[in-house]
Amino acid sequence: MHTPTVSGISDTERRGAMATSPKAIPTSETKDSKKKRMRSPAYPYINLETAIKRAKEFYDREGRNAAPVGVAAKHWGYEVKSSASTQTAAALMSFGLMQDEGTADKRKVKLTANALKILLDNRADSREKDGLIKQAALAPRVHQQIWTKWGAVGISDENLEHALLFDWEPPFNEKSVGGFIRQYRDTISFAKLSESDNGSPGDGNDGSAASEEGDYVPKVGDYVQWEPNGILRFPEPKRVREICSDGKHALVEGYFTGLPISELTLQKSLVTTEPPQKTGVQSASLSNKLMQEFVVPLSDGNHAVFQWPTTLTKADVDDLKDSLRILERKIDRSQETQSEKEKSA
Q1: pLDDT tens column, 75-113
Q2: Secondary structure (3-state) at 139
Q3: Which helix (H) or strand (E) holds 69?
Q4: Is position 4 within any domain?
Q5: Angle between helices 48-62 and 127-137 (to 10 degrees)
Q6: Count of domains in the chain?
Q7: What residue numbers bound the domain in which 299 lies?
Q8: CA–CA distance, 219 with 206 (Å, rounded to integer)
């Protein structure tokens, strides 16, 4: 297994493995070539060992603070707007080591509670740290699916490649499947996953159900992570409170819209951040920062997300209502502009 240096960039990163990420910078190409190109399922383009080292590099410079993606890129030795930097951030998020906030120029990234526990646990024999590394290894949905299907019993690289090219949905691109298999093997080896770890998310050994394809089927009371396009959306797992009547969506605590079951992964336990210091001022400050979120799935696979603080004054409520009216007008104008473009095309 290749072991990259902490300060340097690994060979895999230099080759720029073709992992997909919704936030990766696209290359310039014609519309026809975009239609013809086959996109593999989302997966981390670096292995877990490298991802943890990138998390350490970020921590050494930023600690627990959030930083713009461009700043993180510099910590990793990349150009600010390089695709490698966005793919690295996406990989860390896929492993559950990093989370993001904001969009476009205001987008920032920070390390998760799990990442900090891994990085700061210096105990010689820490079962907690080992468990978190194993959890991170199976956090990417495609990793979880492969481990659920074949586990430690294993499958040859040739047979795995054939399955990913012809039996997987969506199928892998033949140009990237080899890079993915190397990344997956390195990650499983680094995490020291074994047959005794078959109680992984989604395999049904912990009381959860699984479909014939091996996909996780949630039940009320499970703690889950939402992972659309390979990106972890919850800072910490959410509890399933209801399965929708269509059998394809689930409602989780704090969300008012059903989330696609195909994008949910089971988490063994609720991961919480460090408890706040028990002072009246800090407790009030933290309660004011709690956010409600309303997620609206859109027809193209994207999601519209609305957030607001849990605690609002009457003036805040009035301002939000006025803002929603403005937003409604903007959405209407956007639809009118799109219709005009389609007519002129």
Answers
A1: 999 998 888 998 999 999 999 999 988 777 788 999 999
A2: coil
A3: helix 69-75
A4: no
A5: 110
A6: 3
A7: 201-311
A8: 12
Tell me the β-bridge partners of 80: none
Q: Give me the pLDDT at residue 200, please.
A: 41
Does residue 175 belong to any structural domain of this protein?
A: yes
* 212 has a pLDDT exceeding 90: no
Structure tokens belonging to residue 255: 């969300």
Residues 193 and 231 in one domain: no
Residue 73 CA to chain centroid, in angstroms? Answer: 18
Residue 285 inside a domain? The answer is: yes
Show which of 175, 197, 219 is a domain's final residue.
Answer: 197
C-alpha to C-alpha distances, 113 to 96, 136, 272, nearest whole angstrom = 9, 12, 7
Residue 165's pLDDT band (cuts 50, 70, 90): very high
Q: How far is CA 119 from the centre of its chain?
A: 19
Sheet hosting strand 67-68, strand order edge to edge? 67-68, 108-111, 98-101
Scored b (16 or more CB within 10 A) or e, 70-98 reads bbbbebbebeeebbbbbbbbbbbbbbbbb
- pLDDT classification of 298: cutoffs 50, 70, 90: low
Instruction: From 163, 197, 231, give the residue that closes a domain.
Output: 197
Calpha distance 80→295 (Å, rounded): 30
What separation, in Å, do the N-terminal and C-terminal C-alpha atoms of the chain show? 52
Residues 219, 330: one domain? no
Strand 291-297 to 303-309 pairing = antiparallel
Residue 292 lies in a domain: yes
Contact by Cβ (8 Å): 239, 199: no
User: 186: Cβ–Cβ under 8 A, 6 or more apart, which residues?
Assistant: 1, 2, 47, 48, 49
pTM for the predicted model, two decimal places:
0.53
